[in-house]
Structures are given as C-alpha cells and as structure tokens.
C-alpha cells in the first residue's frame, strides 16, 4: 500500500503580515484615544473619547451622549489629547535676558530661551565665556550651552579673548617673499619683514628709517622673552606714565607694548632710538645687543 502524501501547507508571504501591521497601525492612529468614566445617571462604567489638543472636556460622555469638547479660553492651553475639565494656564513668564520663542496659544504654553550671547545655567542666563589668548572657539555658545574652547595647536594662534573666533593659522613668510622676523606661537601670528636682517641675504636692504624696518624692530622687541615685571616697566618708560599694578598676562602685556610702540612710530621716526634707550635704562642689555646685531644698527 502506497503511503499517503503529506498535505502541503502554504504560508502566506511575509509582505502580507507587514501590510496587515501597517493597516492596524493606521487604524489605531486615526482612532481618538479614550478614557473610562462613570455615568452619573446610570452609575455604569462607560468609555468616552478624549478631547483633542487645544480643547477640554466641557461635558463627559454618557451611555447615550458623546464627550462634549470646547476650545481653551485665551491664555490657556492643552498640549495633548486629554480629559481635563479645564485647560492649563500659560504660566511661563520670560525672565531677565530671555526672549520668547513660542507664544502662548491653545495648544502650547509660552516658551523662552536665553537671548543671543547668553546660555542657561541653572535658572539664570549667563554670558558666553570668552576663550583667552592662546585658545580658540571650537563650538559656539548656544542658548543651552556655553562656548567651548581649545588651546591653539602648533601652527595656529589667537591673540585676543573672544567668544566667537577660532584659532587662525600662522602666515607663511616665505610664500610672501619675506623673512620671518618673529616666529609665531599660540598667542600671536608669525611676523614677517622685508627689512634686511643680520646674516640674511634673502631680503632687500632698505634705506635708514624705512618704516618696515622700524616695525620689524618693534615686533622683535615686543615678543622677546622679557620678564613680565620688566615688560611693564618698559611700557611705563615709553608712555612716561607712573607705575601701575595691573593684573595682566605676559601675552597681553606683549600685545600692549607692541600697540604702544606702533602708535609712537606713526608720529615719531626716532622710535627705534627711544626703544634702545629704554632697554638700556632697565638693564636689558642682551636684548639691546640682539636688536643692534639683527638689524645692523
């Protein structure tokens, strides 16, 4: 006797299940959410439909009557489907250094955030931090986050405090057809010159008093490794000002000295002579000699 063949079972393809699940999801999303309520007249437990955002339950449903919803009054809202008997009050008030980014309406409470240049810290808006000289901004501050800084890597610099500026690359003096007068570091750019330097034949030899040479001397002296105390004394002699106890870093003092000397150069062609005398007065003889040798003075 021949064995009976086993009945073949045909399984529906997988796409049929996917389509069925999608259909069920669509049906579910289109059906308003419900809640359980006890009918005050019949004392029966009934299933009521919730009210959509922007409305509230003016009258709960009964066995014979659906839920009655009404719009939220002014300055009130409901953000979700709900069965609240009154809308929520728009209770958010923008504080100091905040701006309104969402008006109060029927579906949303008022929303505030810190104004430009500030970020939220606990319950206050605090000004974005500035990255100090030698560091640059890697991520700008936002209403929620402070500025993020990082020390300038080799070949880049930042010479001032800023909450927006990243580190910048040093200029390439050779590509500009000039000599490097002062190598760059993380606090200042590389400074170039066309002035003939001692031991160098690659640049032109300008006439005495050439403005480029005057500026080259200023740059060279300003960024020498001078102790901060003597750096400040040098500023005081050049400004002819009384001694002041200012809290500043060496990088800031160097930038200030360079600015003072550059300003004096614009109105006084003898700034190099004046600078050499000031160096001698505070006993910075080694730097005076370097300047004379480097610039053939």
UniProtKB/TrEMBL annotation:
Transmembrane spans: none
TNFR-Cys repeats (start-end): 71-112
Domain TNFR-Cys: 71-112
Cystines in this chain: 72-87, 94-112
Keyword tags: Apoptosis, Disulfide bond, Glycoprotein, Repeat, Secreted, Signal
Signal peptide residues on this chain, from the entry's feature table: 1-30
UniProt-listed GO biological process terms: apoptotic process
Location in the cell: Secreted
Domain of life: Eukaryota
Keyword Cell division tagged: no
PANTHER family: TUMOR NECROSIS FACTOR RECEPTOR SUPERFAMILY MEMBER, TUMOR NECROSIS FACTOR RECEPTOR SUPERFAMILY MEMBER 6B
Name under which the protein is recorded: TNF6B factor
